[in-house]
Specification:
Four copies of one chain form a homotetramer. Chain A is an alpha+beta fold and 138 residues long. The first copy, chain A, has one domain: Thiol Ester Dehydrase, Chain A (Roll). In chain A, strands 1, 2, 3, 4, 5 and 6 form a six-stranded antiparallel sheet that branches. In chain A, strand 4 and strand 5 form a beta hairpin.
């Protein structure tokens, strides 16, 4: 099971080579992670925010174009004690065009330290656990 | 009648004051103008592209927040011989939060000159003509 | 006298037509307004921030390209009681390619109301007052 | 030896947590890679462009703030037959705040295939070869 979000490319997302520019992708993946952020912060309130982003990586497999919506598929690829890894793919025209991983840490901003992921959230996230064959979890 | 598009704010669209940053709005309006670009370029093909953007302006009326989708309403506020003015609003939580106008010109890139808007496209655009009371067309 | 800032276009700033995309410009103008924000907020501290942006407009006069730095020239075009209008131009290859105006309001976020611009800041801003002939101040 | 570029954060680069948003970083790194793009495309001409981006990754080590310029340091961390890996760091206030790697491929767009990096370009790139101790080249 995965979270799905449809994104409409903007004219300015396309670069001089006629494809979606690579720097656009982290924003699209961030937008689709709203669905995960919502699990941790149901009210999307910045003053209680409890996640930090430690790392991301993106592989560009095929070009993305202006003329069709893009589906972002968001999975959980690993749940640690206080961190989780999100695995995402961008699909257009029935092809997987990019894939990426993002490491998030459940974080107490007042104490400035990582804190365990609560059992209830963990249990929700587990519904979206999926291990694509080609993804090696470090 | 207006074109409507729903947009999901991204985490990074919010700035240090806790609201959608002003520089985000031209991108959202551009995204919603896809519906107009499609009238002029049904295949969204850059090599035949026939529109240039001459000017835009945005008024920020109320703050936009992270926690709700935003509806962009797109109207045609004026159709000239070769140019048109697009009027757009961003709505969130039943409030109109920003409004903006954009001037587009139907343009022949090979000849590098403005060209008249064809009757067929004009007739489609007229369906979306709307003159909000507070908008003064120059 | 004007504030000057040099900006290096990024690959992704260029759109499918081979020019700097129009949505890039408000960000470049915002970046150059740092020099004005500094007059109001010498320490750039968000918790005491005292400016809101009410409106901007941009006119696209000539295309901007990838292969050269762009100079942003920032003037003050009007100083009101609590608001000011910033006039900016983007120059590349000795040509003025875009011009824009932005209305900022000196604002008390706690009281949620506009407050007068202090005499000291006003006096600094006046050094950058300039009225380009073609700019009509409303 | 490394390429160095200074970048001024924009107001809107800062997100609701008061730090530079993670999605900003690929754009800053892209901007600093202009210095490498110039080695391959001295005239920055899109119609002859000869590089594609296959992958990037970014690690967020410390927060970046609004109130100071950021130095991007760009090294070459690996030169293959047709590809190269660029290693970059973002420094602010004498601290290394992010690091990232990007894989570029020298590419013939007409033939749609990777092509060897010419000896002359390779020799220039070698001047910027640096292997930070903590970077493991796969």
């Amino acid at each position: 099971m995965y979270f799905s979000m449809l994104i409409t490319p903007k004219f300015g997302d396309i670069d001089g080579l006629g494809h979606v520019n690579n720097t656009v992708m982290p924003g699209w993946f961030e937008q689709a992670r709203n669905l995960i952020y919502r699990c941790f912060n149901p009210e999307f309130n910045f003053s209680n925010w409890n996640l930090i982003l430690a790392r991301f990586e993106v592989d560009f497999l095929k070009q993305l174009y202006f003329n069709q919506d893009v589906e972002i598929r968001t999975y959980i690829s690993r749940i640690g004690n206080s961190s989780l890894e999100v695995y995402q793919e961008a699909w257009q025209n029935e092809q997987r065009c990019t894939k990426g991983k993002t490491v998030l840490v459940h974080f107490d901003f007042k104490e400035q330290k990582a804190i365990p992921i609560p059992a209830e959230i963990r249990s929700t996230l587990e519904n979206y656990l999926f291990q694509p064959l080609e993804v090696k979890v470090e």
